[in-house]
Amino acid sequence: MENSTDSEWIQAKSVSFIPPGFYFQKCKRRVKVETLILLARPPAPGKTKTRLIPILGKGAAARLYKAFLVDAAGLAREVQKSRPLAGLTAEWALKDQFPEALPLARWLPGPFLHRGQTGANLGQRMAAALGRRLAQAANAVLIGTDFPDLPPEIIIGAFDTLTLSDNAAVLGPARDGGYYLIGMGRLKPGVFSGIEWGGAGVFEAQKKNLEALGYNVHTLPGWEDVDEPEDLERLRIRLAGNPTAALATRAALGKI
């Protein structure tokens, strides 16, 4: 974290965007806490869930992802119920957009610290997000927002695992060969180096990186993201079998 020594940083409680390099400072003592980081993007028609546009259209695909964000916020609330000291950070892929004009806290409601992502590729963006929070937090877990029915118990279990040792890392494999969650207590150089992002071997490459750097890697249950039309059909089936999961997404699907 830039220019951080022994300060305690707290999350934003109001509708506000935190530009890179800026933080809320509360007092002059350092407190180690946990952090849940969500990677998000604005639900802009034509720019989100693009692989679903052929079957849904631009507007419906954007509305569906907007529902994903609402459910992700609900997931974070459930995690905080179990781990009340866990802070919440939302890292947004904003590119050239003006963050002050975007309703970030309405799209992702809750006590989130809202930031713009930094970095040229996914690995750099995740490294920056984890590095900022781990400068102050004891452990950090980072997840995507393409998994609307992800159970909170998986994230809670990830935090539990990270308390087992200083060298613990957690990794949640996704059906498409990537991963939906990564967490650790220390960010070592090279964690995200040499990975071909977007390919089917991302999870295995990431696991090998972590193991080569000396992490004790704990693999979490697999889960599915929702990017392709067939992913959407499997999501419908899962939701039919779990009537309390992903209520916003369920409602959005009912209007499609």
Quick rundown:
The protein is an alpha/beta fold. It is built from eight helices and nine strands.
What does this protein structure show overall?
There is one protein chain. With 256 residues, the protein is α/β, with parallel strands linked by helices. It has a single domain, classed as Spore Coat Polysaccharide Biosynthesis Protein SpsA, Chain A (Alpha-Beta Complex). The chain is built from 8 helices and 9 strands. A 7-stranded mixed beta sheet has the order 5-4-3-6-8-7-9, with helices on both faces. A two-stranded antiparallel sheet has the order 1-2. A hairpin with a 5-residue loop joins strand 7 and strand 8.
What order do the helices and strands come in, and which of them pair?
Elements: E1 8-10, E2 24-27, E3 34-40, H1 53-56, H2 58-82, E4 86-92, H3 104-107, E5 112-116, H4 122-134, E6 139-143, H5 152-162, E7 168-173, E8 179-184, H6 202-212, E9 216-219, H7 229-241, H8 247-254
Parallel strand pairs: 3-4, 3-6, 4-5, 7-9
Antiparallel strand pairs: 1-2, 6-8, 7-8
Mean pLDDT: 88
Proportion in β-strands: 15-25%
| Count of strand segments | 9
Shape: globular
Flag low-confidence runs.
1-31
**What order do the strands of the largest sheet run in, or round the barrel if closed?**
5-4-3-6-8-7-9
Number of helices: 8
The total domain count is 1
CATH class: Alpha Beta
Q: Could you estimate the helical fraction of the residues in percent? A: 25-40%
Task: State the order of secondary-structure elements, H for helix, E for strand.
Answer: EEEHHEHEHEHEEHEHH
**Superfamily (CATH H level) name:** Spore Coat Polysaccharide Biosynthesis Protein SpsA, Chain A
Indicate the structural class. Answer: alpha/beta
Corresponding CATH architecture: Alpha-Beta Complex
For the sheet with most strands, the description reads:
7 strands, mixed
The CA-CA distance between the termini, in Å, is: 43 Å
**What is the CATH topology classification name?**
Spore Coat Polysaccharide Biosynthesis Protein SpsA, Chain A
How much is the radius of gyration in Å? 18 Å
